[in-house]
Amino acid sequence: MIQLCIVGSVAIDSVETPFGNAENVLGGSASYASVAASYFARPGIVGVVGDDFPKQHISLLKKRGIDLRGLQVDPQGKTFFWSGYYEGDMNVAVSRTTCLNVFERFSPIIPESYRNARCLMLGNIHPSLQLEVLAQMIDPHLVLCDTMNFWIESALPELEKVLSKVDVICVNDGEAALLTGELSVPRAAQKLLKYGPSRVIIKKGGHGVAMFGQDTFFSLPAMPLAKVKDPTGAGDTFAGGFMGAVAGARTINENAFRKGIIAGTVLASFNVEDFSLRMTSKLAPDQINERIAQLREYTRLPRFIVKSN
Amino acid sequence: MIQLCIVGSVAIDSVETPFGNAENVLGGSASYASVAASYFARPGIVGVVGDDFPKQHISLLKKRGIDLRGLQVDPQGKTFFWSGYYEGDMNVAVSRTTCLNVFERFSPIIPESYRNARCLMLGNIHPSLQLEVLAQMIDPHLVLCDTMNFWIESALPELEKVLSKVDVICVNDGEAALLTGELSVPRAAQKLLKYGPSRVIIKKGGHGVAMFGQDTFFSLPAMPLAKVKDPTGAGDTFAGGFMGAVAGARTINENAFRKGIIAGTVLASFNVEDFSLRMTSKLAPDQINERIAQLREYTRLPRFIVKSN
Question: Distance between CA B2 and CA A132 in Å, rounded?
Answer without folding.
Answer: 68
